[in-house]
Amino acid sequence: MVSIATWNINSVRLRVDQVLRFLQEQQPDVLCLQEIKTIEATFPHEAFEAAGYTHRAVHGQKGYHGVATVSRIPLRELTRNDWQANGEARHVGVELLGAGQGLVLENVYIPAGGDVADRTVNPKFGQKLDFLERMTRWSDTLDRPTLLVGDFNVAPLDCDVYDHKALLKVVSHTPLEVETLQRLSDAHGWVDLGRKHIPAPLRNWSWWSYRTFWQGKDRGRRLDHMWASPGLAAQSSGHRVIEETRHWEQCSDHVPLITEFNL
Protein backbone atom coordinates (compact mmCIF):
# COMPACT_ATOMS: atom_id res chain seq x y z
CA MET A 1 0.00 0.00 0.00
CA VAL A 2 1.08 3.56 -0.75
CA SER A 3 -0.44 6.55 1.04
CA ILE A 4 -0.33 10.03 -0.45
CA ALA A 5 -1.34 13.25 1.30
CA THR A 6 -1.94 16.84 0.23
CA TRP A 7 -2.03 19.99 2.37
CA ASN A 8 -2.07 23.72 1.74
CA ILE A 9 0.19 24.62 4.64
CA ASN A 10 0.15 28.43 4.22
CA SER A 11 3.90 28.85 4.94
CA VAL A 12 5.96 25.73 5.50
CA ARG A 13 8.66 27.57 7.47
CA LEU A 14 6.10 28.99 9.89
CA ARG A 15 4.37 25.64 10.36
CA VAL A 16 7.12 23.07 9.88
CA ASP A 17 6.54 21.69 13.41
CA GLN A 18 2.88 21.08 12.52
CA VAL A 19 3.88 19.32 9.32
CA LEU A 20 6.29 17.10 11.24
CA ARG A 21 3.58 16.31 13.80
CA PHE A 22 1.20 15.37 10.99
CA LEU A 23 3.83 13.15 9.35
CA GLN A 24 4.56 11.40 12.63
CA GLU A 25 0.88 10.83 13.46
CA GLN A 26 -0.41 9.88 10.00
CA GLN A 27 2.70 8.38 8.35
CA PRO A 28 1.90 9.11 4.69
CA ASP A 29 4.51 7.90 2.23
CA VAL A 30 4.29 11.12 0.21
CA LEU A 31 3.09 14.62 1.13
CA CYS A 32 2.28 17.34 -1.39
CA LEU A 33 2.38 20.83 0.09
CA GLN A 34 0.98 24.03 -1.42
CA GLU A 35 1.51 27.69 -0.57
CA ILE A 36 4.93 26.97 0.94
CA LYS A 37 5.91 30.66 0.55
CA THR A 38 9.64 30.03 0.28
CA ILE A 39 12.35 29.34 -2.26
CA GLU A 40 14.10 25.98 -2.42
CA ALA A 41 17.23 27.29 -0.69
CA THR A 42 15.32 28.24 2.46
CA PHE A 43 12.94 25.27 2.47
CA PRO A 44 13.37 23.32 5.78
CA HIS A 45 15.15 20.39 4.13
CA GLU A 46 16.93 19.28 7.30
CA ALA A 47 13.69 18.81 9.22
CA PHE A 48 12.20 16.60 6.51
CA GLU A 49 15.46 14.70 6.12
CA ALA A 50 15.47 13.90 9.84
CA ALA A 51 11.84 12.76 9.62
CA GLY A 52 12.70 10.26 6.88
CA TYR A 53 11.33 12.24 3.93
CA THR A 54 14.62 12.18 2.10
CA HIS A 55 13.26 12.72 -1.41
CA ARG A 56 11.95 16.18 -2.30
CA ALA A 57 10.87 18.27 -5.27
CA VAL A 58 10.51 21.94 -4.36
CA HIS A 59 9.23 24.65 -6.71
CA GLY A 60 9.02 27.81 -4.66
CA GLN A 61 9.25 31.56 -4.68
CA LYS A 62 9.89 34.14 -1.99
CA GLY A 63 6.89 35.01 0.17
CA TYR A 64 4.11 33.69 -2.06
CA HIS A 65 2.64 30.54 -3.61
CA GLY A 66 5.03 27.62 -4.12
CA VAL A 67 4.63 23.85 -4.00
CA ALA A 68 6.72 20.98 -2.65
CA THR A 69 6.46 17.20 -2.72
CA VAL A 70 8.29 15.33 0.05
CA SER A 71 8.54 11.57 0.11
CA ARG A 72 9.91 8.47 1.80
CA ILE A 73 9.75 6.84 -1.63
CA PRO A 74 12.38 7.67 -4.25
CA LEU A 75 11.10 10.03 -6.92
CA ARG A 76 12.27 12.15 -9.80
CA GLU A 77 10.97 15.53 -10.80
CA LEU A 78 9.33 15.62 -14.22
CA THR A 79 7.75 19.01 -14.86
CA ARG A 80 7.06 22.53 -13.62
CA ASN A 81 4.15 23.90 -15.62
CA ASP A 82 3.35 27.61 -15.67
CA TRP A 83 -0.38 27.40 -16.33
CA GLN A 84 -0.86 31.01 -15.30
CA ALA A 85 1.81 32.13 -17.83
CA ASN A 86 3.28 34.63 -15.37
CA GLY A 87 6.19 32.80 -13.71
CA GLU A 88 4.45 31.98 -10.42
CA ALA A 89 5.46 28.72 -8.73
CA ARG A 90 2.21 26.75 -8.69
CA HIS A 91 3.02 23.24 -9.95
CA VAL A 92 5.53 20.44 -9.68
CA GLY A 93 5.14 16.97 -11.19
CA VAL A 94 7.09 13.89 -10.06
CA GLU A 95 7.27 10.19 -10.83
CA LEU A 96 7.53 7.62 -8.05
CA LEU A 97 10.49 5.28 -8.48
CA GLY A 98 10.09 2.88 -5.52
CA ALA A 99 6.76 1.58 -4.25
CA GLY A 100 4.10 2.61 -6.72
CA GLN A 101 6.75 2.83 -9.42
CA GLY A 102 5.56 4.65 -12.52
CA LEU A 103 2.82 6.64 -10.81
CA VAL A 104 2.92 10.29 -11.82
CA LEU A 105 2.00 12.72 -9.06
CA GLU A 106 1.02 16.27 -10.02
CA ASN A 107 0.98 18.82 -7.19
CA VAL A 108 -0.87 22.06 -8.03
CA TYR A 109 -1.92 25.30 -6.36
CA ILE A 110 -4.67 26.84 -8.49
CA PRO A 111 -5.07 30.63 -8.07
CA ALA A 112 -7.74 31.81 -5.65
CA GLY A 113 -9.12 34.30 -8.17
CA GLY A 114 -9.59 37.43 -6.09
CA ASP A 115 -12.86 38.67 -4.63
CA VAL A 116 -15.03 39.59 -7.64
CA ALA A 117 -16.29 36.93 -10.06
CA ASP A 118 -15.90 39.10 -13.15
CA ARG A 119 -12.73 39.07 -15.22
CA THR A 120 -13.47 42.48 -16.73
CA VAL A 121 -13.01 44.20 -13.37
CA ASN A 122 -10.88 41.56 -11.60
CA PRO A 123 -7.93 40.27 -13.67
CA LYS A 124 -7.16 37.64 -11.02
CA PHE A 125 -10.46 35.91 -11.76
CA GLY A 126 -9.60 35.76 -15.44
CA GLN A 127 -6.15 34.37 -14.63
CA LYS A 128 -7.78 31.61 -12.59
CA LEU A 129 -10.10 30.64 -15.44
CA ASP A 130 -7.20 30.71 -17.94
CA PHE A 131 -5.10 28.55 -15.59
CA LEU A 132 -7.87 25.95 -15.53
CA GLU A 133 -8.28 26.07 -19.31
CA ARG A 134 -4.55 25.47 -19.82
CA MET A 135 -4.71 22.57 -17.36
CA THR A 136 -7.63 21.18 -19.35
CA ARG A 137 -5.61 21.13 -22.57
CA TRP A 138 -2.74 19.49 -20.67
CA SER A 139 -5.06 16.87 -19.15
CA ASP A 140 -6.28 15.91 -22.61
CA THR A 141 -2.74 14.73 -23.49
CA LEU A 142 -2.11 12.48 -20.47
CA ASP A 143 -1.54 8.79 -21.13
CA ARG A 144 -0.06 7.51 -17.86
CA PRO A 145 -1.57 6.65 -14.44
CA THR A 146 -1.67 10.06 -12.81
CA LEU A 147 -2.72 11.54 -9.49
CA LEU A 148 -3.58 15.24 -9.50
CA VAL A 149 -3.72 16.79 -6.03
CA GLY A 150 -3.71 20.16 -4.36
CA ASP A 151 -5.60 23.30 -3.52
CA PHE A 152 -7.96 23.76 -6.47
CA ASN A 153 -9.68 26.78 -4.90
CA VAL A 154 -13.02 25.55 -6.27
CA ALA A 155 -15.80 23.82 -4.33
CA PRO A 156 -17.68 22.16 -7.21
CA LEU A 157 -20.75 20.50 -5.68
CA ASP A 158 -23.71 22.13 -3.96
CA CYS A 159 -22.83 20.14 -0.84
CA ASP A 160 -19.16 21.19 -0.99
CA VAL A 161 -19.99 24.45 0.80
CA TYR A 162 -21.88 25.26 3.97
CA ASP A 163 -24.55 27.28 2.10
CA HIS A 164 -24.90 26.74 -1.65
CA LYS A 165 -27.33 29.58 -2.35
CA ALA A 166 -25.42 32.10 -0.26
CA LEU A 167 -22.16 31.34 -2.05
CA LEU A 168 -23.31 31.20 -5.68
CA LYS A 169 -21.77 34.61 -6.36
CA VAL A 170 -18.73 34.08 -4.14
CA VAL A 171 -15.44 33.22 -5.86
CA SER A 172 -14.68 29.48 -5.40
CA HIS A 173 -18.29 28.35 -5.91
CA THR A 174 -19.62 30.36 -8.86
CA PRO A 175 -21.29 28.44 -11.71
CA LEU A 176 -18.58 29.61 -14.14
CA GLU A 177 -15.78 28.21 -11.99
CA VAL A 178 -17.67 24.96 -11.47
CA GLU A 179 -18.27 24.60 -15.23
CA THR A 180 -14.62 25.36 -15.98
CA LEU A 181 -13.44 22.79 -13.43
CA GLN A 182 -15.83 20.22 -14.90
CA ARG A 183 -14.21 20.65 -18.30
CA LEU A 184 -10.85 19.93 -16.66
CA SER A 185 -12.34 16.81 -15.08
CA ASP A 186 -13.81 15.60 -18.37
CA ALA A 187 -10.58 16.12 -20.30
CA HIS A 188 -8.92 13.10 -18.66
CA GLY A 189 -11.87 11.35 -17.07
CA TRP A 190 -10.49 12.28 -13.67
CA VAL A 191 -12.09 10.51 -10.70
CA ASP A 192 -12.69 12.72 -7.65
CA LEU A 193 -11.38 10.48 -4.87
CA GLY A 194 -12.91 12.64 -2.15
CA ARG A 195 -16.37 11.89 -3.49
CA LYS A 196 -15.56 8.30 -4.43
CA HIS A 197 -14.88 7.50 -0.78
CA ILE A 198 -17.07 10.12 0.93
CA PRO A 199 -20.06 10.27 -1.42
CA ALA A 200 -22.18 13.39 -1.84
CA PRO A 201 -24.00 14.83 0.01
CA LEU A 202 -21.89 13.78 3.01
CA ARG A 203 -19.97 16.64 4.63
CA ASN A 204 -16.43 16.70 3.28
CA TRP A 205 -14.79 20.10 3.77
CA SER A 206 -11.12 21.07 3.80
CA TRP A 207 -11.06 24.84 4.42
CA TRP A 208 -12.50 27.23 6.98
CA SER A 209 -11.88 30.99 6.88
CA TYR A 210 -9.68 32.54 9.55
CA ARG A 211 -12.26 35.33 9.73
CA THR A 212 -15.17 33.15 10.88
CA PHE A 213 -13.64 29.96 12.33
CA TRP A 214 -13.20 31.53 15.76
CA GLN A 215 -16.96 32.00 15.95
CA GLY A 216 -17.45 28.26 16.17
CA LYS A 217 -19.58 28.23 13.03
CA ASP A 218 -18.91 25.27 10.72
CA ARG A 219 -18.72 27.34 7.54
CA GLY A 220 -16.50 25.06 5.51
CA ARG A 221 -15.75 24.58 1.83
CA ARG A 222 -14.15 21.67 -0.05
CA LEU A 223 -11.36 23.48 -1.89
CA ASP A 224 -8.68 20.76 -1.73
CA HIS A 225 -8.90 17.73 -3.98
CA MET A 226 -7.28 14.47 -5.02
CA TRP A 227 -8.16 13.32 -8.54
CA ALA A 228 -6.92 10.12 -10.20
CA SER A 229 -6.83 8.56 -13.63
CA PRO A 230 -9.63 5.98 -13.86
CA GLY A 231 -7.37 2.95 -13.56
CA LEU A 232 -5.48 4.42 -10.64
CA ALA A 233 -8.72 5.47 -8.94
CA ALA A 234 -9.84 1.84 -8.99
CA GLN A 235 -6.78 1.03 -6.85
CA SER A 236 -7.63 3.60 -4.17
CA SER A 237 -8.69 1.82 -1.00
CA GLY A 238 -9.35 4.67 1.42
CA HIS A 239 -9.52 8.43 1.79
CA ARG A 240 -9.73 10.63 4.85
CA VAL A 241 -9.75 14.28 5.89
CA ILE A 242 -7.62 15.18 8.91
CA GLU A 243 -9.84 17.89 10.37
CA GLU A 244 -8.15 18.03 13.76
CA THR A 245 -5.24 20.05 12.36
CA ARG A 246 -7.60 23.03 11.97
CA HIS A 247 -7.72 23.21 15.78
CA TRP A 248 -3.95 23.28 16.24
CA GLU A 249 -2.42 26.54 17.44
CA GLN A 250 -1.59 29.00 14.63
CA CYS A 251 -2.73 26.43 12.09
CA SER A 252 -3.28 26.63 8.35
CA ASP A 253 -6.81 27.45 7.22
CA HIS A 254 -6.71 24.21 5.17
CA VAL A 255 -6.54 20.63 6.47
CA PRO A 256 -4.75 17.62 4.96
CA LEU A 257 -6.27 14.87 2.83
CA ILE A 258 -4.84 11.35 2.60
CA THR A 259 -5.60 8.59 0.09
CA GLU A 260 -4.33 5.02 0.26
CA PHE A 261 -3.66 2.97 -2.86
CA ASN A 262 -3.19 -0.76 -3.35
CA LEU A 263 -0.37 -0.57 -5.89
Key words describing this protein structure:
23% helix, six-stranded mixed beta sheet, 263 residues, alpha+beta
CATH fold field value: Deoxyribonuclease I, Chain A
Number of domains: 1
Q: What is the overall number of helices?
A: 7
Mean pLDDT: 96
Shape by Cα distribution:
globular
The share of residues in helices is: 10-25%
Query: What is the CA-based Rg, rounded?
Result: 17 Å
Order of helices and strands: EHEHEEEEEHEHEHEHEEHEE
- How far apart, in Å, are the first and last alpha carbons? 6 Å
- Proper CATH architecture: 4-Layer Sandwich
Secondary structure: number of strands: 14
In short:
The protein is an alpha+beta fold. The protein has helices spanning 16-26, 45-50, 123-139, 175-188, 193-197, 210-213, 230-233; strands spanning 2-8, 30-34, 55-59, 67-71, 75-79, 91-96, 104-109, 146-151, 191-192, 207-208, 220-221, 224-228, 236-241, 257-261. The protein has a single domain, classed as Endonuclease/exonuclease/phosphatase (Deoxyribonuclease I, Chain A).
Descriptive overview:
This protein has a single domain (2-261), classed as Deoxyribonuclease I, Chain A. The strands form three sheets. The chain has a six-stranded mixed beta sheet. Strands 5-6-7-8-12-9 form a six-stranded mixed beta sheet. The protein is 23% helix and 25% strand. α3 runs parallel beside α4. By secondary structure, it is an alpha+beta fold. The mean pLDDT is 96. It has seven helices and 14 strands.
